[in-house]
């Protein structure tokens, strides 16, 4: 343990030296070291360029996102806060499936967005120190290196890496947070944090950063106003940078190709198709499925979030697949429908083509110059879908909201680090360049005599991830074919 700490103290050069926080603010951070030990010989809690050059380019903290961009994000957040304000973000914690069996760790999205640090038991503090962009300090508390514990649990990054890799101005042992945090908060004009102040989650371990933060804030709240942080971060996260769009485009490209590849093959069960996609979403750097997929054959496609994926697929039916891969923690979201046997039946083709025309029209509206919001695009999609369905013999003269019955979900949502990105950010906002959304009209026909018989039980949803641009939409997932002729030509 002592030797490991000594090695960390004597790195021959800090990782990302030329993109450190101090350098970004014009004060180069240079250290002299007397050792020849390379960073590539050390172990960290997540890939870094020196250990994983096949994943990360020089200067990147996560795939496609540089240390500079993470510093810029923190600077923008600090600039948006009142003078003297402090933002505090606890990491996510490991979740347990049963007993000692845990789920793969996924960092809390706001914490990840601002730090790039993907370890549990950590806490980030961003303090505004002046009126200019870049006037802030960044403190990252985490676990110190522990050779014995890491032999059992795998490596984590440690305090030295918090400064040299993730560019914190200061760091400290997360176990000491109840002592280290109060001095950073006592003279704050306002504290921004998304943790409960009046209740404690009984399921959280008493030593978790979230619980410790709650305890500290309770002790200070008599004189300091604590307010939610998410509304401050959401406008920043909602507008994607060119680097983020490039990452999402890569995820969309690989995911789209995986779906097209799946359409080429004959499948006899939902389970086999699900398993194939799970593997295909690990190709070309993707980490795996972005969410639990929907693989729904026949009338099961009418269940919007059907995820059992255990039934057999039958000739003459269609299969609805809502799935996508993840790259660098960024999500792609795609839905496609295709005939199990390779050829659409007449009714299947007619309904599919109607939804596809509405989907293409809705995608075309995703341009900043239109000034439309997702809510307005949804209403346009409803009108267009009703017109298409009336041509197919559907009647809308009931007192019931027929279009709401056939098309019960919204036409789209924001997408990014989360499948439903930036929760709380309204869909009534006019779309701007950099907004990334899904466009997914659908029709789910109940087995009801009020609808044309040959369409009953059919389900069609067609979804792409789309980036809004000034000139027009950029579809991030075009490799997933969706034209009837293209789908049928695959087999």
Keywords:
491 residues; alpha+beta; three-stranded antiparallel β-sheet; 16 helices; 21 strands; 32% helix; 15% strand; disordered N terminus
Describe the structure.
The radius of gyration is 25 Å and the shape is globular. The protein has 491 residues and is α+β, with helices and mostly antiparallel strands. A hairpin with a 6-residue loop joins strand 20 and strand 21 (474-475). It contains 16 helices and 21 strands. Strands 8-7-6-3-9-10 form a six-stranded mixed sheet, with helices on both faces. Helix content is 32%, strand content 15%. Helix 11 runs antiparallel to helix 12 and helix 13 (346-364) packs antiparallel against helix 14 (374-391). 45% of the residues are buried. The model is unreliable at 1-36 and 197-204 (pLDDT under 50).
What is the structural class?
alpha+beta
Task: Provide a count of the helices.
Answer: 16
Q: Low-confidence parts, pLDDT < 50 over ≥5 residues?
A: 1-36, 197-204
The rough form would be described as: globular
Strand order of the largest sheet: 8-7-6-3-9-10
Number of strands: 21
């Amino acid at each position: 343990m002592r030797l490991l700490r000594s090695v960390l103290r004597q790195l021959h050069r800090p990782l990302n030296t030329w993109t450190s926080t101090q350098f970004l603010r014009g004060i180069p951070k240079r250290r002299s070291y007397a050792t020849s030990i390379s960073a590539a010989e050390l172990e960290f809690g997540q890939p870094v360029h020196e250990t994983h050059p096949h994943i990360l380019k020089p200067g990147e903290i996560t795939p496609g996102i540089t240390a500079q961009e993470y510093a810029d994000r923190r600077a923008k957040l600090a600039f948006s806060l009142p003078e003297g304000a402090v933002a505090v973000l606890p990491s996510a914690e490991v979740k347990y499936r049963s007993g000692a069996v845990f789920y793969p760790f996924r960092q809390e999205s706001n914490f990840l967005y601002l730090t790039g640090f993907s370890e549990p038991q950590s806490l980030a503090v961003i303090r505004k120190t002046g009126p200019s962009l870049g006037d802030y300090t960044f403190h990252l508390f985490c676990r110190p290196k522990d050779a014995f514990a890491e032999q059992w649990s795998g490596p984590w990054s440690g305090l030295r890496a918090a400064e040299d890799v993730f560019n914190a101005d200061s760091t400290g042992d997360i176990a000491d947070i109840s002592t280290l945090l109060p001095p950073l908060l006592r003279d704050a004009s306002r504290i921004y944090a998304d943790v409960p102040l009046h209740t404690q989650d009984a399921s959280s371990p008493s030593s978790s950063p979230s619980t410790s933060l709650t305890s500290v804030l309770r002790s200070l709240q008599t004189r300091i106003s604590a307010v939610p942080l998410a509304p401050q971060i959401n406008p920043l996260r909602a507008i994607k940078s060119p680097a983020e769009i490039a990452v999402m485009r890569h995820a969309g490209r690989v995911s789209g190709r995986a779906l097209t590849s799946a359409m080429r093959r004959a499948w006899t069960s939902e389970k086999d198709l699900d398993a194939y996609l799970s593997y295909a979403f690990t190709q070309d750097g993707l980490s795996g499925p972005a969410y639990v997929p929907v693989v729904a054959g026949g009338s099961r496609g009418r269940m919007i979030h059907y995820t059992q994926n255990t039934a057999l697929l039958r000739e003459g039916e269609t299969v609805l697949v809502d799935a996508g891969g993840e790259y660098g923690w960024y999500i792609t979201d795609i839905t496609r429908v295709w005939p199990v046997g390779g050829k659409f039946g007449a009714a299947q083709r007619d309904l599919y083509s109607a939804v596809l025309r509405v989907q293409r029209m809705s995608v075309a509206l995703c341009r900043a110059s239109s000034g439309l919001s997702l809510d307005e695009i949804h209403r346009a999609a409803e009108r267009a879908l009703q017109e298409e369905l009336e041509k197919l013999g559907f009647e809308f003269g009931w007192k019931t909201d027929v279009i709401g019955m056939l098309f019960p979900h919204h036409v789209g949502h924001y997408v990014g680090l989360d499948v439903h990105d930036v929760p709380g950010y309204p869909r009534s906002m006019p779309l701007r360049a950099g907004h990334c959304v899904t466009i997914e009209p659908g029709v789910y026909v109940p087995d009801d005599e009020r609808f044309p018989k040959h369409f009953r039980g059919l389900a069609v949803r067609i979804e792409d991830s789309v980036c809004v641009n000034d000139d027009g939409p950029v579809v991030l997932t075009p490799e997933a074919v969706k034209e009837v002729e293209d789908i049928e030509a695959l087999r």
